[in-house]
Amino acid sequence: MNNKKQILEGSRAIALAIKNISPAVISAYPITPQTHIVEDLAKFKADGEANYEYRRAESEFAAASIVLGASATGARVYSATSSQGLLLMTEVVYNIAGLRLPVVMTCANRAVSGPINIWNDHSDVMSIRDAGWIQLFAADHQEAVNQHILAYKLAEKLKLPVMVNVDGFILTHSYEPVLIPTGQKIKKYLPTYRPSDGTYLNPKNPVTLGAFFTPDDYLETREALHNDLRNSLETIKKEYQVFQRAFRAESANDRNHKNDNGLWTYYGPAKPKTLLIAMGSAVGTLREAIKSNPTVGVLKIKVYRPFPAAEIATVMARAKNIAVIEKAVSLGQAGPLYSDIKAGLKPTAIKNLNIKNYIVGLGGRDFTQKMIAAIIRDLPRKNEIIKFIGKI
Amino acid sequence: MTKKIKNNKFLSPGHNACAGCGQLSAAQAVMRGLNKDVIIANATGCLEVTTTAYPQSSWGLPWIHSLFENAAAVASGILAALAQKGDTKTKVIVQAGDGGTYDIGLGLISGMWERGENILYVCYDTEAYSNTGIQASGATPYGASTTTTPDGNASVGSTQRKKDMLAIALAHGVNYAAQSTAGFPDDITAKVKAALAVDGPSYLQILAPCIPGWKINNDEAVLMGKLAVATGLYPLLEYRNGKLSASSITVASRKVAVSEYLKNQGRFRHLKNKEIKIIQKLADDNLKKYRL
Question: Taking CB atoms and an 8 Å limit, are A73 and B111 in contact across chains?
Fold first, then answer.
């Protein structure tokens, strides 16, 4: 049955993929909208369909720490969280990257309190964008499934943690046709995790992990992590190709686009007048909106950290007017994606391009076709650079 | 009579702790209770900072430090990974100070105990945040002057009572809970062995006199550890399955008044008779509570 497309809830699709990836240790704590994933994983275990150790934690802070400890002992691990849970984990999230542990975690993206709001936006993940994790963003169920499998390959190869971001409710609670690769098929692509001797906690070869760094060594360690993360862009691109070859049916949607290098996918004319840039499920809405507009293109960013600034700049150079549409804001500054894109552009490009920032969908506000039309109309006008698009 | 002690290589000398540190000598006593099939999760604190200044390490056992408050949960993760590998031989041990145990890590310790995991948690109780400069913690006793509960014309130092961490452990139904002090290294070693022989969660709390924190001479950590027991302020205790199985408090040990313990410690030097009486009562209450 796994060879056929199934109509699945996003959370269930992710949970089934994780089961087939077969991690050794899972730990999690309930928070909406991530809960369905870890409930499903608990049920698989209860039904005797899975072999992993499942540890109930008393907080997200503990859940992240449990998978940290298990990963440091050489185990493949998984956790999932959202919003406040991710913020509570923050200290551990940074520590996992600093310890170079290949932890994979799903973030079912949700707004951050206050005011309290359980619905989707990207405020949560943006709070830890500087932590040293690879950050992937999925636009639909199939991409979410694929990115989780890819995430483990990248994490274990690069010794870097990977977070897969899926829009809360929009992806986690909706149903789409999706292919779940079998455990056997996944294992061929992603062999059993065997960390090299001397890199994990093992009485046969005792090592000290998490030592105390003085000013003599700390800077170089952070620089090394930064460089490894930057250099991982090339590995991500290569591994994406390998993934597409190994999972042809699962990546059929992407392979139809020649403008897809693993870091981003471009949809639209060769030389668009207008380019709309976004991450996550909003891309689906954008693609639908521009179907009948031959002058507009959409750039889906799939890898947010490391940030493929130069790669994005090459696509941007094709257009004149560019809208960076995002579901987060760095309060007192601008949208984080917009700031990152601007920071990656050469001065000449900044001069020649009209780039504006549209903040949409915060706290689960519907992002509609009407809004997209309004953005396209507004873009050439000389007015504010950063705009919140709420009610149209 | 002196006894020559041979340390194993689990915690090498050459660390950066203060001369005469009570915690490091207590840690050596803990190490003498272990064999090589152990993984240690260590909280942030003096023990971590003084033994792992990169690129050196004093540890001869697999050892991890993650954060201040999460050593208990890290240990749970280690145990889960071992369980998945089918490794039932390797023991998992947490080491933390009183700040990491009584205060910031308490919730995660509660979670670990709830899960009923076979982990030995060792708390080195210096009765203050020694590593950050002797600020008061939940383990700081009444009357102690710390940098955040300083004595002064309008202050007797800490006015809080020391939190009863052993009772908190017992309330979680831990299979083995014990208390010792750096004055009794053989007792520490014996309790580590006893704890590891028990299946399920165990908790060992060791009073570890801190030279700068307690403002004592660097040859007085053991003496203070002994006096803490002899006065009844910090009795040697051992609970098995919730039942007090051994207590060092005897009528004879009560011959030492708390003033003998307090007078040599700079952190208590400001105390007047009124406060000393309050502390004497704490020792007397301990006698009633723990006397076998």
Answer: no
Verify whether the Cβ–Cβ distance B66 to A217 is below 8 Å: no
* CA pair distance A57, B47, nearest whole angstrom: 27
DSSP state of B11: B
Q: Please, what are the domains in chain B?
A: 22-290 (3.40.50.970)
Rounded-to-integer distance, Cα A141 and Cα A106, Å: 13
Tokens at A138, concatenated: 């999925």
Task: Determine contact, residues B125/B97, Cβ cutoff 8 Å.
Answer: yes
Give the pLDDT confidence of A274-287 residue by residue, as tens digits.
999 999 999 999 99
Beta strands in A82-190 (DSSP E): 104-109, 134-137, 162-167, 175-178
pLDDT (tens digit per residue) in B54-87: 999 999 999 999 999 999 999 999 999 999 999 9
Backbone Cα Rg of chain A: 20
Please write the tens of the pLDDT for every residue from A232-284.
Answer: 999 999 999 999 999 999 998 876 667 899 999 999 999 999 999 999 999 99
Say if residues B7 and B26 touch (Cβ distance below 8 Å).
Answer: no
CB atoms within 10 A of CB A148: 25
Smallest CA–CA separation between A124 and chain B, in Å?
A: 22
**Cα–Cα distance, A86 to A127 (Å, whole number):** 9
pTM: 0.97
CB nearest A211 (choices: B52, B79, B111)? B52
Write down the pLDDT at residue A352: 86
Residues of chain B contacting residue A77, judged by C-beta atoms under 8 Å apart:
77
Task: For chain A, give every domain's residue range.
Answer: 6-246, 264-389
Q: Give yes or no for B106 touching A (CB within 8 A).
A: no
Cβ contact A210–B36 (<8 Å): no
Predicted pLDDT of residue A256: 64
| Better pLDDT: B4 or B86 | B86
Domain spanning A264-389: CATH 3.30.1490.20: no
Residue B129 has pLDDT above 90, yes or no: yes
ipTM of the complex: 0.96
Percentages helix, strand, coil for chain B, rounded to the nearest 5?
Answer: 40, 20, 45
Please report where in the chains the tokens 């994790």 appear, as a residue. A133
CB B183 within 8 A of CB B234: no
Q: What is the CATH number of domain A6-246?
A: 3.40.50.970
What gap in Å lies between CA A241 and CA A106, rounded to an integer? 22
Task: Give the nearest chain A residue to B36 (CA atoms).
Answer: A203
Q: Which residues of chain A make contact with B60, given a CB cutoff of 8 A? A: 206
Inter-chain CB proximity A209 and B64 less than 8 Å: yes
Task: Say whether A72 and B77 touch across the interface (CB within 8 A).
Answer: yes
pLDDT in tens, A24-33: 999 999 999 9
Q: B159: which 2 tokens?
A: 């006015």
- With an 8 Å Cβ cutoff, are B74 and A69 in contact? yes
Question: CB distance from A45 to chain B under 8 Å?
Answer: no
Quick check: helix, strand or coil at residue B165? helix
Tokens of B255: 């011959």
Distances from the Cα of A303 to the Cα of A205, A232, B72, B147, angstroms: 36, 11, 34, 48
Contacts of A128 (CB under 8 A, 6+ apart): A86, A90, A93, A94
Tell me whether domains A6-246 and A264-389 share a fold: yes
In this prediction, the residues of chain A whose per-residue pLDDT falls under 70 are 1-3, 255-257
- Cβ-contact A145, A13 below 8 angstroms: yes
> What b/e sequence results for B156-191 when a residue is b if at least 16 CB atoms lie within 10 Å of its CB, and e otherwise?
bbbeeebbebbebbbebebbbbbbbbbbbbebbbbb
Quick check: A283 and A300 in contact, CB under 8 A? Answer: yes
